[in-house]
Amino acid sequence: MTSSSFKALVLREQEGKTSASVEQLTRAELPEGEVLVNVRYSSINYKDAMAVTGTGKIIRKFPMVPGIDLAGDVIESSSPQFKPGDKVILTGWSVGERFWGGYSQVQRLKAEWLLPLPASISLHQSMTIGTAGLTAMLCVMGLEEAGITPQSGKIIVSGASGGVGSVAILLLSRLGYDVTALTRDVNEVTRKYLTSLGANDVIGGEEWKVAPKPLEGQKWAGAVDTVGGTVLARLLAEMDYQGAVAACGLAGGFALSTTVMPFILRGVKLLGIDSVMCPNPYREKAWARLARDLDFSKLANAERVTGLDGIAAIAGDMMAGKSRGRVVVDLSR
After folding, report:
1. How far lies 183's CA from each of 11, 243, 247, 305, in Å?
2. pLDDT for the residue numbered 324
3. SS3 state of residue 190
4. How far apart, in whole angstroms, are the C-alpha atoms of residue 191 and residue 27?
5. Which domains does the chain have, with CATH numbers?
6. I need a labelling partner for 153 at 20 to 30 A (CA). Which of 6, 241, 288, 317 fits?
C-alpha cells in the first residue's frame, strides 16, 4: 500500500449513537507508534461486533478505527525488532478499543503489540485464527495445565457455533478429546457444521436458561465457556470431581450466580482466560501450538471472507446470534 490515502472503517459518535462508515484516511491521521504496517487481513470477533454496533461500552473515545486483530507487512519501522517486509500479527492489547485497530489498510502501531508471523502460517490463516483462535488455544492450554486429559472424560464447549467455540472444538477433537458442543440453535445445519469440526454430540435446551441447583449430576471433565451467566453457573454445577472450566466470554452476561459447593465439595477449578493482555511469551507458545495442533483444512471450512464494506452487516448478524465460525476481513477488497 503505497498511495497517500487508503480506506478504513471509522466509528463516530452522533447524538449518543455509533455510526460506522468506510472513509479515506492519510498516514498523517494515524496514531503514534514505531511500526507502520500494510494491513492485509483482519477478522470480526464478538467484541468487534459490539464496537461496530455500539453495544455496551467497548469504545469510549471517538473517532475510532475498530478491529482487534490484524496481519500484514511492515512498511516502516523505528524499532530494532522489525524491519520493512517483515510479516507480523497483532491480537488484543486493547487495539480496536482504546487504540486504532485493524480495519484500516494502513496502521501505525507500537512494536510491543506485534509478533512475527509463525513460518508455517499464512497471513490469511493467521486471521482465520485471530483472537478467537488464540483464545481457544489458551483455553485448551488452561485445561491441560489443570490436568484434564482425553482420558479424563467428556469436554463441553459452550457458544459452540461462534469463533472461539468453533476453533476450540477443532483443537480438542484433534487432540483426542470427546467433545460435546453446546449451542442455542440445535438444528440440522448447525449439527452438521459442529460435527464436521469434530464434535461427537450437539446439545441445547431450555435448561441452559434456568439457574441450576448448587450441585447437579456430574457430566463433564472439563469445559470451554464463552457464554458466562447462567450457562457458566450450570457448567460449574455439572462438573465432575476435580473438573475444570476455562471461562473466556460473557455473551450471556457478566454476572455469575453460583455457590462455593462445586469448588469445596468437588474440587472444581474455574480458570479465567484472558487473551487481551496475555504476555508475549505465552502468546508465542500458543501460536506455536496452533501451528502444530490445528487442522487448517477444517479451519478453512469454518470461515468466510468479507471486505470493509461488509463488516457492519455481519456485526449486526453476530450480535443477533446469526453468525457462525470465523469471518476474515480482506483489506484489499
Report:
1. 31, 21, 16, 23
2. 87
3. helix
4. 46
5. 5-117+302-330 (3.90.180.10), 131-272 (3.40.50.720)
6. 288
